[in-house]
Design brief:
The complex is a heterodimer of chains A (about 230) and B (about 475). With about 230 residues, chain A is an alpha/beta fold. In chain A, strands 2-1-3-4-5 form a 5-stranded parallel β-sheet, sandwiched between helices. A 4-stranded antiparallel β-sheet of chain A has the order 6-7-8-9, covered by helices on one side. In chain A, helix 2 runs parallel beside helix 3. With about 475 residues, chain B is α+β, with helices and mostly antiparallel strands. Chain B is built from 10 helices and 12 strands. A 5-stranded antiparallel β-sheet of chain B has the order 2-1-5-4-3, sandwiched between helices. A 5-stranded mixed β-sheet of chain B has the order 7-9-10-12-11. Chain B has a two-stranded antiparallel sheet with strand order 6-8. In chain B, helix 6 runs antiparallel to helix 7. The radius of gyration of chain B is 51 Å and the shape is rod-shaped. The chains are: A alpha/beta (about 230), B alpha+beta (about 475). Chains A and B meet through helix 8 of A and helix 7, helix 8 and helix 9 of B.
Chain lengths: ~230, ~475
């Protein structure tokens, strides 16, 4: 997977590149709009991360040029203002997602993965198995080590999200947005409590532990017991 | 003042308007008055002339009545001497066949007698006026029956040049008087307006003296004329609002600095200490994690402040849609279910409400903050109740929870940014103290109000969203 990051702020660009590379992506960085425009138009990328505020050619222009050239590469734009108008403008121009600065890297990573997954063939299995945890999706049932676990519908939705994206660190805001449709910074404590209750049901009495807390970032569901 | 691309015409100055109006009014009044005087004079002269002509006519008619024959020499003599002591008076007599009986030097009265219908009596309104050889005359024609001879036609006339020239002089004098009076009037009006505007200039000078450091200055409405009182009152109101906003803003900046100082100090100290000697990878990791948490808190605070700034700077930027309040509240209950159960707090919804026009995300955010607060402050085993009521005034959503009483003096300040009842609680991950400020800004962007009340039993926050009038572009209750 090859990504392009267009970002004029050097530190941000470096850390984003490092983070994405360590997450297993190939990353090109353009530090101004002109280079970004050139690279985006000439190289095939799987995803473009675009800063809106660039000194020369701004992010909107690059996005526009891409769409006018018929390139449907997913674009995630970064905006410092977070204005609703910015968001609307970006989405109207054909951006796929946006993040408001300051953002957490885990959030960026999660969004990038969501966008990349969207492009690939839809993956809707009936059954997800991780270690001895089995999710029966059509019947909304979960079993751990063969024992039925009673979950509320939201708990099941939460578990399903973690399971579908196993191994990924999911930030609290993403969980809130995907499970409860809460698209704003709300009481993040709620997610912690929900995870704790879910853990009590599927992890406490079993080994290995599947749900892991990644401090300062979020939660992940993973069979490899490495916290 | 910003330069507008479109040239707008500035309305005429007040002084000009008043002066012009006074000028026009004065001129009209004076002209009307002059016209009346001139008419009266003309009428007076006409009456005077008629009287004189009547006297002349009487003097002429007398011998005619007594004469037996139009060719009587005595008659001619009597006619010639009939009028004495009158200057500039002319008369002419013709018999029934139109033959001149008597004529003398002067205007051509024969043609007057031939053309004008004779009258029985001389009346000021029926006099003929004409000009002959540079002289103006006024005259009349009479029919007189003699004793034994046929009816005579008598024409009398008089020279009225003197009267006319008097009238002309008089009119000229009136014109001059009008002009002079107009000039004086304009000058006086202009001075009066300048004098009348003196209070405005005084007010202006006082307004000019107001600086951002002295926003507590108020203009005294009693010191200005009645007409300006309202303006001054409005200005004072505006000043009060600006002062409030300004104070809030400066407090806000101070608060931001204060709120950021603590985490930045923590981060700096922690990092410095960590770098002070070499440590194990786990220790470094621990420092980074701790920093990350601190950063996350700061970043959330920045996000909240940005949100507040946006909502307050641009309250019209709402994406209104029909929002089902019951569904919204139930969705929020879903979200808080785990937290509430964990604290053994029940969530209840009472009442019903139709859907309203509102920004769904914003409304959810506001209610979510209220609910989160309520759950946090409810004792174990108790219930948080959300009540929906709808009446003519609008829709009320109230969130009630039993719990400790909020001191009376804290209630009005609850919705201020960074305000915390218990300052020691601020660093326990309970947000930056912006939650209720966000609620307030969202509700106010919707044109509503938020209030809080608290007694020993119950603490209640309620949001009143006013009913929007039908026909407004941006929605109404449906």
């Amino acid at each position: 997977m090859k990504l392009l990051v267009v970002e004029d702020e050097n530190k941000t660009a470096d850390y984003v590149r490092q983070g994405l590379m360590e997450a297993g992506f190939v990353v090109d960085v353009a530090r101004n709009g002109l280079d970004g425009h050139h690279l985006a138009m000439s190289e095939p990328y799987d995803l473009v991360i675009l800063d809106v505020m660039l000194p020369d050619v701004d992010g909107w222009r690059i996005l526009q040029a891409l769409r006018e050239a018929g390139k449907q590469v997913p674009v995630l734009f970064l905006t410092a203002r977070g204005g609703v108008d910015d968001r609307v403008k970006g989405l109207e121009l054909g951006a796929d997602d946006y993040l408001v600065k300051p953002f957490a890297f885990s959030e960026l990573l999660a969004r990038v993965r969501t966008l990349l997954r969207r492009g690939s063939a839809p993956n809707h299995p009936d059954r997800i198995q991780i270690a001895d945890l089995v999710l029966d999706l059509p019947r909304r049932r979960a079993t751990r080590a063969g024992q039925r676990v009673n979950l509320t519908s939201k708990e099941f939705a939460l578990l399903e999200l973690l399971a579908r994206r196993q191994g990924e660190v999911l930030p609290r805001s993403l969980i809130a947005s995907q499970v409860w449709d809460m698209n704003f910074d709300s009481d993040s404590n709620v997610i912690d409590v929900a995870i704790r209750r879910l853990r009590a049901k599927i992890d406490d009495a079993f080994e290995p532990k599947l749900i892991h807390t990644v401090r300062g970032m979020g939660y992940t569901l993973d069979a490899s017991d490495a916290e | 003042m910003p330069n507008r691309p479109l040239r707008t015409r500035r309305p005429a100055s007040l002084a000009l308007r008043v002066t012009a109006l006074v000028g026009v009014a004065t001129t009209l009044v004076f002209l009307a008055f002059s016209w009346l005087i001139v008419r009266a004079l003309e009428h007076h002269f006409a009456e005077q002339d008629a009287g004189e002509l009547r006297a002349v006519a009487d003097a002429v008619i007398k011998p005619l009545r007594e004469a037996s024959n139009s060719a009587d020499a005595a008659l001619l003599h009597r006619l010639a001497v009939a009028v004495t002591g009158h200057h500039g008076v002319f008369y002419y007599v013709a018999d029934a066949t139109g033959h001149t009986v008597y004529a003398r030097q002067g205007p051509n009265l024969a043609s007057l007698a031939a053309n004008r219908r004779p009258v029985g009596n001389i009346d000021a309104r029926e006099l003929a006026t004409w000009q002959e050889h540079g002289t103006f005359y006024r005259g009349a024609v009479l029919r007189v029956d003699g004793v034994d001879s046929g009816p005579y036609t008598v024409a009398v006339a008089m020279d009225i040049n003197l009267h006319l020239s008097f009238l002309k002089d008089f009119q000229r004098m009136l014109w001059w008087a009008t002009c002079i009076v107009l000039c004086i009037e304009l000058l006086v009006a202009w001075l009066a307006v300048q004098w009348g505007h003196l209070p405005i200039r005084k007010v202006n000078a006082r307004i000019r003296a107001i600086r951002s450091s002295r926003l507590d200055v108020r203009l005294n409405p009693r010191e200005v004329p009645l007409e300006l009182e309202e303006l001054v009152a409005s200005f004072n109101d505006m000043l009060a609002r600006i002062e409030d906003g300004f104070a809030q803003l400066s407090n806000f900046s101070a608060d931001i600095a204060h709120e950021l100082r603590t985490p930045v100090t923590n981060l700096t100290t922690q990092t410095e200490v960590a770098l002070g000697q070499s440590r194990s990878a786990d220790e470094y990791r621990e420092v980074l994690y701790s920093n990350l948490e601190e950063f996350e808190r700061m970043s959330r605070m920045i996000g909240d402040m940005l949100f507040l700034a946006q909502t307050e700077n641009d309250p019209d930027n709402l994406h209104r849609a029909d929002v089902d309040l019951e569904e919204t509240v139930k969705g929020l209950f879903d979200y808080f279910e785990a937290l509430a159960e964990d604290r053994n707090v029940a969530l209840r919804l009472h009442g019903r409400a139709g859907s309203i026009r509102a920004d769904r995300e914003m409304l959810r955010r506001a209610l979510s903050n209220l609910l989160s607060n309520a759950i946090r402050h409810t004792p174990h085993g108790a219930t948080v109740t959300v009540r929906l009521t709808q009446d003519d005034a609008g829709t009320t959503v109230s969130v009630e929870n039993p719990g400790r009483k909020i001191p009376e003096e804290d209630l009005p300040r609850l919705f201020d940014r960074f305000y915390r009842i218990d300052p020691s609680r601020q660093r326990k991950g309970e947000g930056a103290g912006l939650g209720l400020a966000i609620v307030k800004s969202i509700v106010e962007a919707h044109g509503g109000e938020v209030h809080a009340a608290s007694d020993n039993v119950l603490t209640r926050f309620w949001v009143l969203l006013p009913r929007r009038k039908r026909g407004l572009p941006d929605g109404h209750w449906t």
